[in-house]
Structure formats: structure tokens, C-alpha cells
Amino acid sequence: MAAAAAAAAVGGPQPPQPEAAAQGPALDKAATAAHLKAALSRPDNRAGAEELQALLERVLSAERPLAGAAGGEEAAGGGGGPGAAEEDALEWCKCLLAGGGGYEEFCAAVRAYDPAALCGLVWTANFVAYRCRTCGISPCMSLCAECFHQGDHTGHDFNMFRSQAGGACDCGDSNVMRESGFCRRHQIKSSSNIPCVPKDLLMMSEFVLPRFIFCLIQYLREGYNEPAADVPSEKDLNKVLQLLEPQISFLEDLTKMGGAMRTVLTQVLTNQQNYKDLTSGLGENACAKKSQEKYLIALKSSGLTYPEDKLVYGMQEPSAGTSALAVQGFAGVTGTLGQVDSSDEEDQDGSQGLGKRKRVKLSSGTKDQSIMDVLKHKSFLEELLFWTIKYEFPQKMVTFLLNMLPDQEYKVAFTKTFVQHYAFIMKTLKKSHESDTMSNRIVHISVQLFSNEELARQVTEECQLLDIMVTVLLYMMESCLIKSELQDEENSLHVVVNCGEALLKNNTYWPLVSDFINILSHQSVAKRFLEDHGLLVTWMNFVSFFQGMNLNKRELNEHVEFESQTYYAAFAAELEACAQPMWGLLSHCKVRETQEYTRNVVRYCLEALQDWFDAINFVDEPAPNQVTFHLPLHRYYAMFLSKAVKCQELDLDSLLPDQEMLMKLMIHPLQIQASLAEIHSNMWVRNGLQIKGQAMTYVQSHFCNSMIDPDIYLLQVCATRLDPDYFISSVFERFKVVDLLTMASQHHNTVLDAEHERSMLEGALTFLVILLSLRLHLGMSDDEILRAEMVAQLCMNDRTHSSLLDLIPENPNPKSGIIPGSYSFESVLSAVADFKAPVFEPGGSMQQGMYTPKAEVWDQEFDPVMVILRTVYRRDVQSAMDRYTAFLKQSGKFPGNPWPPYKKRTSLHPSYKGLMRLLHCKTLHIVLFTLLYKILMDHQNLSEHVLCMVLYLIELGLENAAEDDSAEEVSMGGPERCHDSWFPGSNLVSNMRHFINYVRVRVPETAPELKRDSLASTSSDGLGSLQNSGTAQVFSLVAERRKKFQEIINRSNSEANQVVRPKTPSKWSAPGSAPQLTTAILEIKESILSLLIKLHHKLSGKQNSYYPPWLDDIEVLIQPEIPKYSHGDGITAVERILLKAAVQSRMNKRIIEEICRKVTPPVPPKKVTAAEKKALDKEERRQKARERQQKLLAEFASRQKSFMETAMDVDSPENDMPMEIATAEPQVSEAVYDCVICGQSGPSSEDRPTGLVVLLQASSVLGQCRDNVEPKKLPITEEEQIYPWDTCAAVHDVRLSLLQRYFKDSSCLLAVSIGWEGGVYVQTCGHTLHIDCHKSYMESLRNDQVLQGFSVDKGEFTCPLCRQFANSVLPCYPGSNVENNLWQRPCNKSTQDLIKEVEELQGRPGAFPVSISSETNLSKEMESVMKDIKNTTQKKYRDYSKTPGSPDNDFLFMYSVARTNLELELIHRGGNLCSGGASTAGKRSCLNQLFHVLALHMRLYTIDSEYNPWKKLTQLVEDMSSQLGNEEQQPEVPILYHDVISLLLIQILMMPQPLHKEHFTCIVKVLFTLLYTQALAALSVKGSEEDRSAWKHIGALKKNTCDAEKSYEVLLSFVTSELSKGKLYSEEGTQECAVVNPIAWSPESMEKYIQDFCLPFLRISSLLQHHLFGEDLPSCQEEEEFSVLASCLGLLPTFYQTDHPFVSASCLDWPVAAFDIISQWCFEIRSFTERHAEQGKALLIQESRWKLPHLLQLPENYNTIFQYYHRKTCSVCTKVPKDPAVCLVCGTFVCLKGLCCKQQSYCECVLHSQNCGAGTGIFLLINASVIIIIRGHRFCLWGSVYLDAHGEEDRDLRRGKPLYICEERYRVLEQQWVSHTFDHINKRWGPHYNGL
Predict the structure, then answer these.
(1) What residues are paired with 1843 via a beta bridge?
(2) pTM of the entire structure?
(3) Phi-psi region of 486 (alpha: psi -120 to 50; beta: other; left: phi over 0)
(4) Residue 1757 and residue 1643: Cα distance in Å, rounded?
(5) Could you report the per-residue pLDDT of 842-878, keeping only the tens digit for each?
(6) Cα(786)–Cα(712) distance, integer angstroms
(7) From CA 1190, how far away is CA 966, in angstroms rounded?
(8) CA atoms within 13 A on the CB side of 348
(9) Cα–Cα distance, 590 to 1178 (Å, whole number)
(10) Which residues contact 614 (CB under 8 A, 6 or more apart)?
(11) Alpha-carbon span 1557 to 1397, nearest angstrom
């Protein structure tokens, strides 16, 4: 910038400064700032102010920065400029604010004045926060983790959650939470003791910030381009935002400085004068003008009714129908507002009849004008919010605006601004392409504002918040209305929302609805809503948009092509937009004083319903074959009625409409109930699966109390007030089963196929039972309801606590009082259920803690009606009945198949007493009579279920006796008399005994009745007269009755009379296809009572089975509640009913006795026509076939299950198909194997070898053993770290590399074993197969594309028999398994001879029955399996040689494989052999076969006989010095440094197989001498100088005794003196640290040390002997393990006496003179320690006592892990990982799936599993609390070891309840890790493609 300009800008007085400015960067900002601050501090600061303004004008000029960005195409050119200029401007601002001082110090100074009464920390999505229901006043209350942990919430009902939309911490805000829950920081009301802010501290801020914010706004104006033709301009917007990032962050940092700075910011943001001055005083600046224009253009579109919208809504679609509608809907809102003249629009669209639709009236035109108008801004805050909305809520801006909220003044101003922009926000949201993100951010803001009751009330009063919300909701929905097709498709005037629109499908409306629900939860706001009639009208109008949406039409011909999934949207919309606000309003209508509100709602609800009936032209019959599940108006009406009666003591009748309206109201809910039955009867199958989905959702737990419950309640209300005969007949007509209810054995149903009749009849009766027994809204208290719901759910299945919470329909409004987890929930739960703690079967699935119903609940509270109402799947009803049956059997109450029990109901509320009239109406009695008769006569299409429901209804009628009905009887004179031929009155008790003689029925001409009856009519003259009086026909009567009823109503309104379609008699004159109907007269002569008694006979299958119990025991009549009748089948039910009937009336009692006296003649077998018989037979045969099939399947399943149980049982030995190892019969020469593929048995031969199915896996479990007892803990603080250097693997590694430094490589590789990490473990399921069969099996697997989680190309398969996972086949060596026995003859060769034999045998190359030169199938297989074994582990775990590829590597690897398997078996036995016995894994052990394979390959490598360690062990060498390498060549490893177990394996594998027992014992004896010497040497190094001299002395005294070679004292003294000749002990000074605590060695402790040193060798040798020779291991106590194993191995001389205390030295058997060979061995060491004393010493002390491997110990409470790790940064990429995980073996922290830490296409977890576990990884996923197992190329989710207080997992921490370690589960996990059984036990494996 030119110097002159600068000078002009700053103004003349100080010429030096402009000069400085000219020098650019050299200008000292701090000095300028200090100068200005001083100038401004003077009393007359005008000059200073002007100067500052000028400077700011220059620094913050908006000319340069964004020109490039906004232009878009020039952006690339102007890229360099903006950044630098921006930074410069920011630097200036910081300097100026600080007034010359340092910015950091300034921040600190301001923070000191922060009166932190509120926390107010703002977070974004995915942040982990807490919610405590005990402390919250508002349900949205949330706390940040810090405040939560600092407050005291013990015993509270809290949970941790991941924020979805973002939020803010409410700690310190007493409007939202109780003060008791505040954390320590925010408990103190600290404002009092904070000093007041010094004036000059923030003085500069007051000047600088307005300019800064204005500059920001100008940037925003400039960057915004009105999107052309609605093309999304997101890219441009994001560019602008990126450039503004530093500015907004700067503002955000200011807010974090605390209260003092927030006050200044509030001042700046809300000051209207500032805004006016800056925005209007733009002068002639061209750039500013441009931005002002852009701002005005943007503003223009902010009103709801800007003309462009009209185009968007009305004119886009050419189809007149829809567009006219949309415009009309739009005009509906706006017409009243005078912005659009809607009439001409209608003309030009040519829409007819739409004008009739009621206009949507807002409460008053004047004040609402502002809702629709273009916005006007008066302050920075308002314009900032405007741009925040325009830019679709950038996260940074949202955070800044929210960070300011702790400032009270700002909060009010901001809330008002937010409300003022509310309509604009929703308009932007609707157009947005990122509506999800945007919704979240809107709610992030609004929830902070509207949760506060005080604030919500204030804006409701001052800013018409409610009007705005309702209007905006209407406006939003009006854009997606379509014509309703319900009822009268052509002429319907009703419009509904179109559920296929994005607005509904994507749930775009939820921010609005959620805000609305939020403010309605405040009493003061809800009251205003309920008092405002205008608002209620508008709201009902809104609700009516959802009435009848998503209409389903039944497909009758072919299946729908496309199954629409719109029903999700429809159900969600009704629940969220209609039901939840309804529950919100209901929660404020709890007391008597609120009666008025209920009356208002009910009134407008009925008006809206009336309008709806008019709009859809509804008269009296619903249109056939269509159903909508959405009737929100009906449900509003029902729920407010229920509330009025239950809580407000209102009179029901005062709220009910006239009869006609009630008849209309009942039609649609009844239609839904009938459709449910149709859907379950598969009558809607052609509509696809989605219709079933709707039927399920309708009753599902989250929807049922807003959908099915209100519907049933409304039907109950209608039933109480309508004529019962009308109601009952309507029900059967809706369910389409009228025609079935005839006495004739055949009938023709015009509206229903025969196959659906039975289930529809069941549906109708079940519905009646539910209608009459359900008391949810008719008098149950909340606690009773909760209990009933809980019992119903528990009876279906045992449930976990969380699923119960989920399944019990809670009142959807959070403030309703029944909060899940509330006190009543827990107390009811403990009253009705027992907790079953989780159980663990090894290999079983992980169980969760379950609740199961108590016995007394089954006994008294099991309610099948409630269960039927609440089941989503029909199978749950069956499941409940099965469980009930099982309970009765178990408790001995009833052995057979019980019927659903009859349960007594709570008493009805007086208002609903009329409901029981249904049970006492003739229509129902006729139906019951007819059905009983049909069941007795075995007519088709009736089921046990029908009988059950019929009896249930009769019982209900007897329980609820009719009130005195004589008055009714009188009124029924005149025309109604025809009835009496059926029943005299309407009381069930008396009608039960009424005999019905003849019935006239209409039957097809073919019916059997005709033939029978025509005879009767000729013979009997009396019949003619009877025909008039004694016969009737049921449902023609119903039709008459309905017609009459219609007339009664129509008398009142004559004009409706023309519209009433007379009930067409067509139903009775059947269509042409039907057979001709004629009338026949049936002779019945039965009453309900006699039918029941005959039924009893029929059910029991015995004549005269019913005997009235009161004849024996008169007591029965007095106390009818007899437990023996409460559970049982149909017979019990009949007995119970007859008893009740007798109790109710003496007449009945007498008649029952009479009927029983007449010996009932058998029921005449009905004549069945041939065709009918055929049909029946066919049906029966089908049924039988079905049962047979079920039986077979069940049997098959149980077989498979029992096999799986035996086969998969990991711990117990196989008992079904072990390898046939016959040890008992020595005469069998060859082992015989069964091939599980071809099923043949035979020996394994050279040409056709058999193999064992094995799984090879690399394992590092051995390497994880540690030598300390204390298990390692998982680190949960920065200080705790786990270092791997005390693990077994690390120690062995160090030893090998130490040896390799000083000794010859080839010799080093014989001195140790590898395989501690990445060793190959071989395990088998014990099944064998021919290797050629296996190859063809693999071939078939390869061609079978459906692979279950394993890869055939890698050779993986599952055992064909037991399905255990495997990946190789281990050939069985031909020959006998019994040979061992031949070699067990007592050995009498001398040790010397044996030693010689061993040496010779080792020298003989390939002395195998199989010569390697001839390639046989067997040797090929041996080679291929060896390859498999090598490839199982990674190269780095095989190659330890310094010369890569040296044969020594293979040699070392092979004997180490044997070592690994032996060591692991030892670990599986618990680390010692005390338990003895045949190995539990014996049958499954494959060591024998493995040894053959290894031995075969090891014999290919001959050890140079010079270097064979055997020689060193058994012979004295003449010339010692030649043994030591000369200078150039490295020496061999001294024999005392050799690992004895490795030597054992080398010696044995070098021998020709099979090995003789005597040779084995010889090798063990020789090696034991070496081992013993090593123990002594190690002991001598461990002792102190004094110890050593003492030992030398003692030993020297005893040296010449007879058994000196077997006395440890002598030997120890000798070893010590031999070694002390060298420099081994001389380095004492430096070694002091090693012997920190000198142990006082006693003979006992020395003996123990020596035994412990030797035990590992004895254990391995014994195991080896056990596997090679099949000998059992003896069991013993731990203290005698040494001696027992020693004698078992033949080390102890047989004549050894047990009276002396045992000494290990007695096992020694020296091959040559002990002292000579020891001195030879010590000499090697001496010559080495000459040079390297330190290392020599270290190598002597071998740590041999390893503890068993364990996983890390986990803390008790999961939260400790979570809090530390979920914020921890990854050590590789230093970011906080999205999915952090921690390895449970070594504690390493890794990123799961993190691309940041990927190396060569391997993600970090996979990589770690290879390095830490050789391909097996066990990781705890921090954010999910689950454990994931990686095994090679597969992975599986194992489950969680942390459970909540109710014993359940919380995967993904969804519930966020506190979790505690479950030790049993962790033990199971550890057990599976140690025993390598992950592959067998866990079933759900999938490939991870290295992406974890």
C-alpha cells in the first residue's frame, strides 16, 4: 500500500508513523496499539477514536480478500493474496485488542474476570456426553464428561451417550437441572467475589470488534451468489467458508475468554446503532455497494410468500390435478395473508371444486403478517444469523453463536432473533441438499433455546412462537399434498401428504416437529396453545393432512410389481408429527382444572372429523378392499376422551357426538381390525411383504399406544353407546363371515374364499374378546397397565432388561412420568420376574442376564388376551402358550395341553358400563348358539380356537351379568316380536337354558339337510304351524335390523335420506355362479346348556362324562372360585362355565341336572356327501402329512444337535469316533483308521495313506508367559506402561542373540529352541480320512461357491464329520500303534551298551522302513505337510541363522515345532503334570504322527559326528584345548549352555522311528546328568562368595564317601571349585546389583531350587514318553511331582527306599566318571569367561520357571478404560482415532480400520496381530466395548466381557449404562486364547481383507 495512502488514512499529525508504515512488515504493530490505547484513555478521546477508525478501515478493508474466491474462476489467480492479507488483519486485531501488550497475557487477564457460573461447553456431533435423569428438569439435559465426573451422581439413573446433533453442557443452569447435580466448579455462585472489570482492559475491544464483525459480514455478503436456477452452489459456499475459517475461529476463541469478553461481544452484536452506522455509512465505495446489493437480493427471498415460490409450487408440473392442488394448498395459507390473490390462480389452472376446501385460518391476520414477510435486520446478530442460515449452518458459526449463550442478555436476544428467522430457516432446510447435517445443526441450536421454560414462555408471548411454528409446519407440509383416494376416489375433496416425497421420506420435517414437541413440554406454553381456538383449528387442519395417508388397495389379480416402502415414512410421520405433540398436550391435561382444554380439543377434533367425512363423501359403508392405518384425528379424539374420564372427572356423554357420528367414527378403526385379520389370513399376499410390515408396525411397541390402543378404545366407546345388535352385526359383516354363521352344513360365502373363512372367523371372535376384555383405558391405573404389559412380554419369552424397556410401550412424551428405568418400572419388574444370571458353557454362545416370570405370575396373571394384542409375530402367541404348558407340567397343575386360561378383569369405570351390553344381546347369543351347534356337528372351517373364543365370550357374559333388563323387554313390543322364536330376552343367563326347536335355513339345493327334512315335512303336519313361529334365520334379521337403525337416524335429517343406499338384499340372493339356494327347516331341539354338555362328552370322548359337581358337594356353589378349574383344557372350560351358569340361576342348575339325567343319545353321525368326504379326507391327509414331516424334521434336528454336542464339546474327550487306538490287544499288528468321507476302514499304507484332520496355526501364546506372579494390568493412565522384556519370548530372543555373538552359528542353532513366538501348533479333532478322498473333497469345496468364511485356496476346510475348522492333513505312519508294547520288556543291557547303540543308530542315515529315494504317495504327503507347517508361520519366525537359507534353520525349526506342541500341551494341563491320567487330549493328540513327519525330515540332515552333542555328553575327550576354536574361528557353544529339552528332542528325532523304550530312557538319563550339572552351576553363580566357600568346604569333606557322585553337596562343591578357576566369580564388584537380596541358602531351599530347575525337563520327557509309548501319566501331589515323574521315567533306581527324605541327586546315573566329565564341561565355560565373564554368568542362569500365560488384567469399571482411551492419540499418526482399540495381550493402542496407520496395505490391527500374536489378535474396541478376534485372514466379533447391572452387553455403548467386568466371560476368552480354540468355538467368521 502506498505510503501516501497510509498517511492520509492515519491523518496528518504524526508524520513519523506513515513513514514506518511504508516499510511494510517493519511497522511495529504493538507500538501503534499502545499509542492508540493511550490516546483513547484520555478524557477527550475523539482524535484517538478517529485515528483508530482510520487504521481499522485500512486493515479490515473488504476490498481485496475474497474478490478472488467469490469470482470462482479468478480464484486460482488471486490465491496467494488473501491468505497473507487475512493473517495480517488478524494479527492487527490481536495487537489492538491487547493494546500493545502480548495477546496471550491479555487473554489470561480477561479470563481472571470470568464469573463461571455456567459451564456452557459446546460440542459437535459424536462427542461423548452424559445425561442424568435424576438431576434433569428438562429431558434434554446433558453434561460434559468433566462436569459429570466432578459432580456426585452415585446411584442416579444416568447414561453416557454419543451426541448425534451436538449440544452444550448444562452444568450450573438451574432452569434445566437440579442444583444438587452441579459439579464442584459450578456449585458456587461466584459472581459476588469476582472483582469488576477495569475499564481500560476491554476498551480497545469495544472499538475494534464492531469493525471486525462488520468486515466478516461483508465477506459473507460478498461470497454469496444467489444460486442460479436452483443449481446447488455448495462448492462456492464451502470455499468462502474455508477462507473465513481463521476469522470465525478468532471469534470463537474470544468467547472462550469468559464472561467479561462475552459481555462486550453481546454489546457489539445487539447494538442497533452500531449496525446502522456501519451498514448505512458506506459512502461511494463501489465494492461495498456491490455487497449491499447482493445482501438485498438474498433478503428478498426470505419471506414465505415471495413470488418465486409460487412458481416453484404451482407452475412446475403440467398435470392440472396436482399443481392445482399444490397451489390451492399454498393459497390456503397465504390467501388469508393478502399476499396472493388466489382466485384468479384457480381460474387459470382450471381447477374445479377445490375452492370448497376450508381456508386455513391463522389466529389473526395482522400479527401474523410478519411471519410471512421479508426479514428486516436491525443488528449484527440478526444479520449474522441470517448468513449462518444462508450458508446452511456452518459448524464453526453454530459453535460461535452457541458459545455465547452463557450470557443471559445474549441468550434472550439470540432466541428472539432465532424465532424471527424461524420460517426462513425451514424454507432453507427444505431446499437444502444436505438436509441431514443441516437438521442436526438446527436442533443443536434450538434445543439449547427451547428447553428453558422461562425463555420459551417469553418468546411465545412476545414473538408469537406458537403461531410461527404451526404456520411453518403447515407451510412445509402443503408442498407435498396429493388428493386422497380413500372412499370416493372421483369426488373426494380431502388432501393428504404424499409419503413418497423427500420431505417425508427423509424425515426433513423433524427439526421443526422436535422443536414443537420441546416447547409443548412446558406447561405455560402448552396452556397458551390449548386456550387459543384459532391455533387449535389450524392444528387440527394440519393433523387432517395425515388422516388417511398411505392408502393400501388390495391387489386381487396379480402381485404388485414394485413394493413401495413409503409406509416407513407414513408411520414415522404420524408418530412424530401427530402423536408426539398429542402426548405432549395430554401431559398437561391431568387435573380437573384443565377440563376446558380437553373440551376445546374434542370440539375442534370432532369438527375436523365431520369435515373429513364430508370431504371424502362418506355415508355409511366403507369402500371395499382398501385400508389406511393412519387415522390421527380419531386417535386425538380417543386419547383426549380417555384423559377426560380418567383424570379430569368429565362426564363422557358431554363429550360424545350424536349416534350417527358415532356410527361413522367406528367404521374406519373397525376396518383396520378386520384388515389385520385379512392380512394375517394371507388375503393381501399380492400386495407384497410391505403390507405385513404395516400390520406389524401398527401393533409394535413404539407405535401401539399411539395407534392400536386408541383405536380399540374408540371402538369400545362406540360399543358402549350404540345399539349392541347393530354393533355385533357390523363386526361380523366387516370380517366377512356373516354367511358362515348358518346352521346348514353347507353355505356359500359371496365375499370370502373358503380357505380364508376359518381364520377370519377366528379373527372376528378374537377381536370381540379383546374388545370386551381389554381395560387399558377403561379403568386400569398406570401401575396396573405397566404390570400387565410387562407380564405379557415376559410370558412370550425371557427378556433382557433393555429389551423389556424397549418393548413396554412407554408414553412417548418424555415428561409423562413413566420414565423407563423409573422407580415403578424396577419395582414392578422385581415383583413379576426373577433374574437369571448369565451362564457360560464353554463353547456355548454368550448368554445375557434374563428376566423370567415368577411361578405365581404364570399361575394367576398370565393373560392370553394381552399377549395376542401385543405380539408382532404370531409365533410369539404360540411361544407364550408353550411356556405356559411347560409351567403347568412342571408344577404338576395340569399334564395335558392346556387352553388359554380365563383371567378376571379389573372392574370397568362407570362411564363404560354399557360395553357389557354387547354380551347380552340376542345377535351375539344367536352367533354363539350357531357356532356351538356347528362345532358339535363337525361342520368344516371351525377350529379349536373358535371354540375357545366362543366359550370365552360365554364366560365373559356370565361373569358380567346384565343389569335388570325387564324394562327393555317391555319396550320390545310390536314388530320386533319375530325374534322370540330365537331367544325370549337379552340376558345370557336366561337365554342359555332356552330350547330352540326348528330353524329355517337357506341351503344350496345339493345340501344333505334337504333330503332329510323333506321327509320330515311330509310326515309331520305340525310343522306347517311351526314354520311361522318356531323358526328364524339369523342374519337376514341383522340386515333388517340395520335398515331399521338407519331409518331411526335418517328420520332426523331427511336430506340424507336420499343418499342412504338401501341395504341391498343381494347378499341373500346369490350371484349366478353360486348354487341355487332354497329354504330348509332344521330340527335342532337344543339349548346353549345342552350343547355345552354334549360338547363335554365330545371333548372327553366318553358318554355321560359330565356329572354336576354340586350334587356331591354343595359347597361348590357357594365359593365358585375353585383352583382346580383355573388351568386346564376345553373340558375344564366347559365345566367352569356350567358351574358359573348354575351359580347364577337356580333354573339353570335344575335344567343342567335334567339334561344330565336323560342319558344322552349319541350324536347322530352327520351324513356326509361323497364330495365333502373327499375334501375332508384330503384335508386330513394333508394335515397328517404335515405332522409327519414336522416330526421327521424335529427328529433330524435333535439328532444333529446331539451329535454336535458330543462333537463340539471342547473339553471332554471324543467318545463317538476316536482314532481306533487299540492298546489292550498286542496281537493286532496294524492300526486301523476309518475314513470319514468314504466310510471304509483299513490301515494306512504307502500307496493309500490315511491322514488326521489337523489345524495348523502359528501361536505366540508361549512367548507371553512371564516369570512374575503378579499379572500385568491394562494401562489406564499415562504413567502405566507395559514393557515386553520380561516375557518368555523376549528372554529367549536375548539368549539366542547373545550366543550368536560369541559362538559358531550352526552350533548356536542346536543349543536353543525357537517357536516361543510364531511357533506352529498342531491340533486335531481326531477324525481320519484317506488323503485321496480329502483331495476330491477339497475339489468339491472349491467348486461350491457358497463358502462359509474360510478360504479353500489356502487349503482350509471343515472336517466332513464334526465340521471343525482345519487346514491340513497329517499322514499316519504305516505300521502298528501297538509296537510300543513289544519294546517294554525289562531292559537288562548296561547303560554303556545302550549309549553305544544310540550313537550308532543316530549315525545310520535314513534307516527308515520307507526309503526316501523311492517316491511313494506317503513320502510325498509327508513332504507336503512339512511345507504346510513351514508356511503356517511367517519367515521371520523360522529364520534365525546368520546365513539365510542355511539347513540349520530348518533343523532348528523342526525340532522346535515338537517343542512348541509339548510345551503348549503342558500349559493346557495347567503347567504341571500333577493331574496325571491319560491325557484329556489323548484321543485328540496328533503328536505321535507329528513326530514321525518331523523325524523323517530331520534325518535328512546329519549332524557332523564330530559335533554331535551326544559324544560330549557320554565320552571324555583327551585333548581339551583342541575343542576351543582358535582366534579366527568362533568356538562351539559350551555344553552347559545348551538347552537340555532341545537336546532331548534332537536326540530322539535323530533316532530311527519307532524308537525303543530302552533307548529313550537311556537318552533321558544321560541328559539328566547334564541338566543337574547346569542346576548346580546356576546355583553357584547365584550364591554369594561366603556361600561358595562354605559349599566348597562341605563338599570337600564328603568327596570320598561311597556315593559321592550322587551327593549334591559334593557335586556342588566340585562345580564351584572348577568354575572358580576361571574369572567367572571374580567380577563380584560390578555384579553386586544382581544379588540384591542375598538369600540364606539352606539345604532345603537348595534342594527346592535344583528340583524346580529340573522339573520342566522331567515334565516334557514324561509327556513325550506318554505320547510315544502310550503310557499313562501317574497323578500326584504338587510336592512329590519330581519324584513321581523321575520314577516314571526310570531315573530312580528301583531299590530306592522312601524312608529318607527324597533328594534329587539320587536320580543321577553318570555314564562316565562324574568328576571327569564335569570338569570337562566346566573347562569350556572357563575358557569363555576368560574374556566375557559378564555374559558367561548371564548365560548360566537360565530362568526356567515360567508362569502360565494370561491376558492383561482389566479394571472393574469400563468407564475407566473408556475415559482414558477414547481421547488418546495414536502413537503412529498422533490423531485421535475414529475407532480406537487396545490389544488385550500386550496393551498396545491401535487404530482399527485407520487408514492413517496403514503399512503396505495392512491396517494397524491386522499388522499388530501378526507381530504380537503371529496372526492371532484379541482387541477390545473402545467405542463399542466388544472384543474382536483376528485369526489369520479372518476375524470375528467375540462379544463383550463388560456387562451392565442387569447382566447384558451394551454393544456400541448405545445405552451408555455403567458396565462392569464379568470375570467368567474373561476367563472363557483367556481359555480360548490359551487353548487355541477360537476357530472351533466362534462360528461367525468373515474375511477382513487386511482392512482392520
Answers:
(1) 1860
(2) 0.82
(3) beta
(4) 47
(5) 555 678 899 999 999 999 999 999 999 999 888 999 9
(6) 18
(7) 55
(8) 9
(9) 60
(10) 493
(11) 13
